[in-house]
């Protein structure tokens, strides 16, 4: 019975400490990441996709980011992604590229000539030459507590070019 009481008290103390860490972490973490997303080239191709004509965009980008300030004593890893937001009537968001950064030493990212990892097409058959904004988004995953999200301030506005026919 004495061992059970000590074990229950120890678990209570541990959970109270973990709860305190989860509550105070957002108040003591200050981050100021520096990011730049440069869109180098956008090619829009028309493609016969299942009997209907659709447009696909292929984007080439450069990324320079210093995300070391997002790592503190409670950060386990970062999920980073380059997101394109576009639309005239409705705002659409598409993840073009993503990665997981597991340590502070890997948090300085310099990548050139990144191609979109994921298919970039619209639910409508055409991009209609609308503007798109490109920004770096991140989610800081803590050891204990709530997920913290953010977005870069450096946003690039780029107009979709006129489509070309897909040469298969």
UniProtKB/TrEMBL annotation:
Primary site of residence: endoplasmic reticulum
Keyword annotations: Endoplasmic reticulum, Membrane, Signal-anchor, Transmembrane, Transmembrane helix
Origin organism lineage: Eukaryota, Fungi, Fungi incertae sedis, Mucoromycota, Glomeromycotina
GO BP of this protein: protein targeting to ER; signal peptide processing
Entry keyword annotation includes Transcription: no
UniProt similarity note: Belongs to the SPCS3 family.
GO cellular component labels: signal peptidase complex
Record's subcellular location: Endoplasmic reticulum membrane
Membrane-spanning ranges: 6-28
Function: Essential component of the signal peptidase complex (SPC) which catalyzes the cleavage of N-terminal signal sequences from nascent proteins as they are translocated into the lumen of the endoplasmic reticulum. Essential for the SPC catalytic activity, possibly by stabilizing and positioning the active center of the complex close to the lumenal surface. Essential for viability.
Membrane topology annotation: Single-pass type II membrane protein
InterPro entries recorded: SPC3
Presence of keyword Transport: no
Xref: Pfam families: SPC22 (PF04573)
Protein name (database record): Signal peptidase complex subunit 3
